[in-house]
Amino acid sequence: MTTSPEILKPPVITTGPIGWIRTNLFSTRLNALLTVVVIALLYFLLRPSLTWLFFDAEWAAVTSNLKLFAVGQYPSDEMWRVGVVVLIVSLLAGLSWRVWSGVARTFARAGGVIFVAMAFVPLSLDSLDVEARLWILANPFVIGLGYLLARVINVPPGRLIIAWAAAFVLVLFLLRGSGWMPGLPEVRTTQLGGLMLTILLSVVGIVASFPLGVLLALGRRSSLPAVSMFCTLFIELIRGVPLITLLFMTQIILPLVLPQDTFLDFIVRDRVMRAFVAITVFSAAYMAENVRGGLQAVPLGQIDAAKALGLNGFNVTLYIVLPQALRAVIPAIVGQLITLLKDTSLVAIVALLDIVGIGRSIILGNVEWRGSQREVYLFLAAVFWIFTYSMSYASRRLEEALGVGRR
Amino acid sequence: MTGEERPAADDIIVCREVHKWFGDFHVLRGLSITVKRGDVVVVFGPSGSGKSTFIRVINRLEEHQRGDVIVDGIELTHDIRNVELVRREVGMVFQSFNIFPHLTVMQNITLAPMRVLRRPRSEAEKQAMELLERVGIPEQAAKYPAELSGGQQQRVAIARALAMQPKIMLFDEPTSALDPEMIKEVLDVMRELAGSGMTMIVVTHEMGFAREVADRMAMFDEGTIIEEGTTAQVFDNPQHERTKLFLSQIL
Amino acid sequence: MTGEERPAADDIIVCREVHKWFGDFHVLRGLSITVKRGDVVVVFGPSGSGKSTFIRVINRLEEHQRGDVIVDGIELTHDIRNVELVRREVGMVFQSFNIFPHLTVMQNITLAPMRVLRRPRSEAEKQAMELLERVGIPEQAAKYPAELSGGQQQRVAIARALAMQPKIMLFDEPTSALDPEMIKEVLDVMRELAGSGMTMIVVTHEMGFAREVADRMAMFDEGTIIEEGTTAQVFDNPQHERTKLFLSQIL
Amino acid sequence: MRILTYRGTPLWRDARVLRAVTQIVFVVIVVAIVVYFVRNVFEAADERGLKLGFGFLEEEAGFPIAESVIGYTESDSFRHAFIVGVVNTIKVALIGIVAATVLGLIVGVSRLSSNWLVKSITSVYVEIIRNVPLLVQLFFWYFGIFLLLPVVQESLRLPGPIYVNNRGVFSVWANTTSSFDSWLLFVLGGVVLAVAVRVILGRIQIETGRNTHPNVAAALALVLLPTLGWFLVGESPLIRETPVLERFNFVGGARVTPEFAALLTGLVVYTAAFIAEIVRAGIQSVQRGQTEAARALGLSDAQTLLSIVFPQALRVIIPPMISQFLNLTKNSSLAIAIGYPDLYAISRIMINQAGRAVPIMLLIMAAYLAMSLTYAIIGNIYNRRVRFTER
Amino acid sequence: NGGDATPVVQTVIVQATPEPVSNRLDVVQDRGRLICAGRTDLAGFGFLDSAGINRGFDIDLCRAIAAAIFGDGNALEVVPITASERGPTIQAGEVDVLSRNVTWTSTRDSQWGNYTTIMFYDGQGFMVPKRLGFDSALDLDGTTVCVTSGTTTELNLADFFRQHNLDLETVVFEDTASVYGAYEAGRCDATTSDKSQLAAIRSGFSDPDAHVILPETISKEPLTPVVAHGDDGWFDLVKTVMWVLINAEELGVTQANVEQQRGSDNIVIRRMLGVEGEFGQSDLGLKATFAVDVIKAVGNYGEIYDRYMGPNGESFTLPRQQNELWTNGGLVYAPPLR
Ligand SMILES: Nc1ncnc2c1ncn2[C@@H]1O[C@H](COP(=O)(O)OP(=O)(O)OP(=O)(O)O)[C@@H](O)[C@H]1O
Ligand SMILES: Nc1ncnc2c1ncn2[C@@H]1O[C@H](COP(=O)(O)OP(=O)(O)OP(=O)(O)O)[C@@H](O)[C@H]1O
Ligand SMILES: [Mg+2]
Ligand SMILES: [Mg+2]
Fold it and tell me: What is the value of ipTM here, to two decimals?
C-alpha cells in the first residue's frame, strides 16, 4: 500500500436528508419517541393558533392606531420632527455600516429592508397615509447615502462616536423643542408616547445611568470604608426592590422629598421625568454591578504600573482602569439595555403612555376595540421581540468581536 | 460472520476494514488490525491521522460506519448491551486526564466499581488503595484532584480505569500534557502494567518507551495503518518511506 | 532624625530597620541597605523571601510599617507629597510587563510625561521615539501591545519608565516571564542602561548578567538581607552557608 | 543634603488624615441630604395634612381581598391585610420557584438534546419568551388564555373530577375529620420509617454491594403504616370532598383562581427561559472529557448526568439561579396588572383607602428587602459550602 | 468635622422652603396652559382617539377652564394618572385641576382638596347577565363580583354585602377595563361600578341586551372636579366655569348659536356672555366675555354630555336621568350668574 487509501463518500444513510433525519430526529429510541410526541403536540397547539392568526384575528385595533403606537400623543403638526430624527439615525447607521461593518452592517441592511417593507405594507391609506410612507421610504436612501458618504470622505471611528453622541443630544432637543425657538414649539413630555417613549426612556435611562453607575461601582470598590459601605448599601437597596415600586415611589414620594417651586420642578412636577428618575436610579444600580465586574477584570499590575509612573489616583482610574474595564463591559451594557427596554413597559402601570400604556388605553378607552386584547398584546409582543432580539444578536456579535479584538 | 474467518481464540481485538466518517470527512479509511491477548501495541503517526478516533472506536466512544470491530468476541453494533459489555472490558486513559474534579481521588476510583459492578464500598475502597499503591500515590487518597500534580492526576486516571478490572487498556497520548519528570512517573506505571500481562494499545510518541515495552507497533497515516509489525521490525527495518521519515523526525 | 547618622550625600537609597507585615505575616524583618548613586544592585534569594515587597516599598506601592526608607533624600511617610516626589524619581519594571493594552506603544510611553510632567505632546513623542530607538524598537511605535512579543513588551515597559527621567530604576524579575531569545534582548537594554550610569536595583536570577553588570549584590532570606557585598565578594567568597547553597543551586 | 522628614508632614498632606477627612465629609454630605429629604417630607406632610405614623395599621381595612391563604375579612385590620399580601407573595414565589426550576432544567437540558426538533423548539421558546416584557406576557396569559376558558356552567371536566373553567381549576380534595390528628401520627411515623429504611438499606447496599431495594422498601413503609393507621383510628380520618356546581360556582374541593394561575404561569414560563439558559451554560461548562471518561468507565447516561455532569454544573448554575429566584419574587409584583392580591397590590389599595402613602411605601420596601436579604443569605451559605467541599 | 455642618444644612433648608402657591391663576397664565389630571382609559370620560387626542366628558370640563382663561380650549395639558395617585397628585398641587371621575366624599374633601361643583350624579349599581335571572342586588348572595381597586366602589361593595349579610367573593383589578373584560368573559357573576360606567360598558358589549343593571343604587357617587386646598380664587374660578356650562344649557346657549346669542335680549344671557353687566369675572381675573370662549370651545353642559353619551354619542348612549337639568326633573343645578 504505497498510495494513500481511497477517500470514499460516506454511506448515503449517514448523509443527505435521510442521514440528517436519522441523526437528528431518530438517532435513539428515546429521540424517536420525543420526535413523535413533539410533532403531535405541535400539531395540536399550532393548528388552532395559526388558524386564529391568519383567519380569525381582527387587526383593526392595531392598524387604525398606528400613529398612537408609534409616537403616542405627539402633535400631528410636529410629526416631521420624528421623521427627521429617524432620518438622522438612518444616516448615522449608514455611516456606521461603512466605518464599522460587522454588526453595524447587519443592522443598517436590516433597517433598510424593514423600512421598505413598512413603506409598502398593504394597509389602507387611512392607517398609513402617503406622506408617512414617503417619510419612511426616505430612510433606506439615507442609509445608502451615509454609506456612500463614508466611502468618499474618511470618517475616523472616534469622530463617528462623537457624531452619535451629538445626534443623541440633537434628537432630544428636536423632539422636545423649546418655547423660544420659532418653528420648534415645545412638545411636552406628556405628549411623548408610544414606542418613541419606550425607546427614549430606555436609551436615555441607560445613558443617564452610565455615569451614575460608574461612580457607584468605583465607590463600592473604594478603599474608604464609609464610601464603599454607602455605595454597597445603595446598590443592594435598589436591586432588592421591584422596579414597579420604585416607579410608584417616584410618582408619589418624590414630590414630597424634593423641594417645590425650585429649579427641580422639571422633575417634581413632571410625571414622565419622575418615571425617568426611577428608571435611571434602578438602571444605575445594575450598571454599577456590571461595571464592577469590568473593574475586577483589570489586573492589579496595571494599577501598580500606572502608580509607579507617578500618575495620581484620579488619573490612574481615568486613563488606565476605566478604559479597560468599560471595554470589557460593553456587551453587559447592551444586555442591560435589552432588559431596560422590556422593563420600561412597567411605566404603563403608573399610567404613562409608553407603547404598552397606549395599547391598554386603546383597548380600555374605546368600546369598539375591547374585543381585540389578544391582537394588541401579540402586536406589542412582536414589537418588543424585534427590538430585543436584534439587540441581543448584536450583543453576541459584539462579544465575539471584542473577545478576539486586542484593543 | 459467514464467509469470513473467525478470529482466533487469542485475538482479543479484531478490526476489519473499518471506515468512519465525520460528516463528509473520511477519517478511518478501511483500517484493519488484530491485537493478541497480552500484547502491547504502540500506535503512532502524524497528527490528524486518526489515531485517537481509532482508539475511541474500540470502546465505542465513536461509532464506526462500515467494517467490523470485535472486542473479546463481542461485536460492536448498535446493540446497546454489547456496548455496555465492551466498556466494562476496556479501560481508557486520556491525554487530558479527565479526572472528576468534584470527587476525591478515592471517590474517583470507587465510583464505577460501586455503581456499575455494584461492589460493596469496603471492597471497592480496599481495591482502590491497592491500585493507588500500585501507581505509587497511596497517601493522596483523600485529596481532591486540584491538589495533585499532572503526573499524579494521570496516575489516578490509570488507577481509576484499572479499578474496573478491564482486560484491555487504551492509552491516548497519556503523557503529552505532562512535564518531563512527570512523564517518567506515568511511563513507569505503564511499564509495570505491561509487565503484568495486560493487553494495551498505547498512542504515544515516546519512542524509548515503545522500544522497551511494545510488542508490536502500528504507524497510522491518513486513516489507515500503513505499517504494522513487531517493534524490532518497525524500528530497525521499516518498510515504508513514510514510516522512515516519520521515525527519523521524532527520534 | 535626631541621634541617627544622616545619610551621606551619594547614598541615594537608604533603608534602616524596615519592617512590614501583611496582616499577621511578617514579610520584611528589619531590613537595612544603602545604595549609592550610580550603583547597580542585584537582589536575589528564594521565592517568598520578600524581594518584590522590598522593591515595592521603595516606591511606596506598599507601605512599610516601621523603620525608615529615604529615597534621594525624601523620606517615605504618610505625606502624600513625598510619595509623589519619590514616584517621579523612581522608575519600575515588572515581571509581567504591565503594559497598558488599550494604548499604543507610543501612548504607553507618553502618557505619564504628558499627564504628570505636563509635557507638550510633540515633545513627549519626540522623547518617546528616542527611547524606543534606545531600546531598539522604533518601528513598533504605532502598534498595540498585543501585537508585540514578550521581549518587545518588556522593552516598551523600560522605555515607558525611562520617559519619566527617573534617577533610579527598579526591576522585579524583568526576564522571568520571557523565552530565552527574548531574555537576551531585554538584558542587553538593561546592560546599556547600567553602562549609562543609572542607579538600578534588579531582582533577578540571571547570574551571568549579575556578574557582568552588578556593582553590589544582596541575598534575601526570610525578609532580611543575610548577605550583601560587591559582586566579586558574593560570588567568590560568600560568607553564609545559605548563600553558598542558594548560589550552587541556581548556577 | 535636605531630608524631608516625618515630623514635618502637615496635616493636609498626611494620607491618613486625608482619608479620615474625606470619609467624614462624605458621611456628612450623605446625612445632610437625607436629613434634608426627611425634613421636606415632614414639611410637605404638614402642609397637606398627610399623616406619617403607622398607627392606622390597627384600623379596620374595610376592603375585600379576593384570595388569602390565612383568612381575612373586611373587618380585619390594615396590618392583617398587609400580612395577607406578604403571604400571597410568598406563596406565588415559592411555588413559582419550584416550578420554574423544574421547567428550566427540562428546557435547559433539552436545548442540548441530540434531537433537532426538541432542540429547536426549546430554542424558539427561550428566544421568544426572554425577549418579550413579562407585563405583556401576563396580560396575554390572563386575558388571552385563562379568561377565555369556558364559563362555569360549561366547565371542562377532567378525571378526578377536576373542573376547569374561567373561574379557576376546582379539584376534589380531602377534608379532615376528628380522627385526622391520630392518623397524622401514623403518617408521620410512616415518613420517619421510610426515611430510616431508605438510609439504612441504602448504606447497606453501598457497603456490601448487595441490592437491598432501598427505594422499594421505603415506599412500602410509606404506604403500609398510614394504611394500617387508617383502619386503626376508627372513623375515616379524611373524607373526600368533591366540588359541586351550585348556583353560581363550584363549592368545596380545592381551587386555584385564574389570577393566581395566570400569574404563576407567566412567572414560571418567563423565569424558566432564563433558568434554561443558565442550566445550559452550566452543563456546557463541564468539559466533554468528563462525560467521555464516565462513559468509558461504563457509567450509563443517567449515571453520567447525575453523578458527573450535574454536580459540576451546579457550582456554575446555583449563583445566577438564586438571582433568578429573586427576580421572580420581585416580578410577582406585576400581579397588580391581573388582579392577584399580592403584597404590592394590597399595599396600593391600602394607600388609597388609608391615604398613608409614605409609611406604606416604607412597608413595601422593607418587605421586599427582607426577601432579597433571605436570598442573599442562602446564596452566601451555598457559596461557602461549595468552597469548603471543593478543596 | 461633622458637628459644624448642621447649621449650614439648616440654612439651606430654610432658604429652600417653598413659598406656598398663593395664586394659581398667575401660575397658569405664566405657564400658558392648564394642567389637568385625567385619564386615557375610560370610554366616555377620558380616552384617546386615533389621532392621539385626549377626549371625553371629564376632559371637556378641563378644556372649558382652559378656554375661560386663555380663550383657547387647546391650551391644555392632560396628565393621565392612576386611581391611586389622585389624592397625592392634587394634594401636591402638581396639577391645576383633577377631573378624573372623582367621587366627592367628606374624607376626601378634607384631605385631598376643594371639591368644586358636582358635574355628574352617579350611584353605584350592579350589572349581571340576564340569563342568571337576578331581579335585585339582594339576590347576589354567594356570587363573585368584579370591582376596581382603591375606589369607593370597593368599600361600598363590602359595606353592602356585610350590611345585608350576604356572602361575597371579589376579584379586584387596578383598572376598570380589566374589570369589565373579566366580567364579560364570565369570570364574575356580577360587576359593580358607577351606573354610568355600567351603562357605558353594557352598550359596548356585543349583545347589550344580555346584561341588565339591577335597580338598587347602593351609594351616591357625585363626580366632581377638584382643586388643591389653599387658593380660594382658583377654587371660585373653576366653580364659576362649571356654572357657566350648566347655565348655558338652561338658557339655550349652544356652541352653534353663542355668537347670535350675544345679541339676545335676554338680560341673563347678555350678562353671562359679558355683553352687559358683570357676574364677578373681574374678581376672578377673567375676561368679561370668557363664557363665549368657553361655550365656543366645548358647548354647554348638555352638548358635552351628548357628545360622548347622548343618543349618537361618540362612546356610548346613556339616558341623562338624574343628570338632566333641574328644570327637566334632574339634579343638575347651578347658582345663578349675577
Ligand atoms: N468529532 C469530530 N468531528 C469532526 N471531525 C473530527 C472529530 N474528531 C476528530 N475529527 C477529525 O478527524 C481527524 C482525525 O482525528 P484524530 O483525533 O483521530 O487524529 P489523531 O491522529 O489522534 O491526531 P493527534 O495526534 O493530533 O491527536 C482530524 O482531522 C480531526 O480534525
Ligand atoms: N498583598 C499581599 N498580601 C499578603 N501577603 C503577601 C502579599 N504580597 C506578598 N505576600 C507574601 O509575602 C511574602 C513575600 O512576597 P514577595 O513577593 O516579596 O516574595 P519574593 O521574594 O518576591 O518571591 P518571588 O521570588 O516568588 O517573587 C510571600 O510569602 C507572599 O505570599
Ligand atoms: Mg489524538
Ligand atoms: Mg517576586
Answer: 0.83
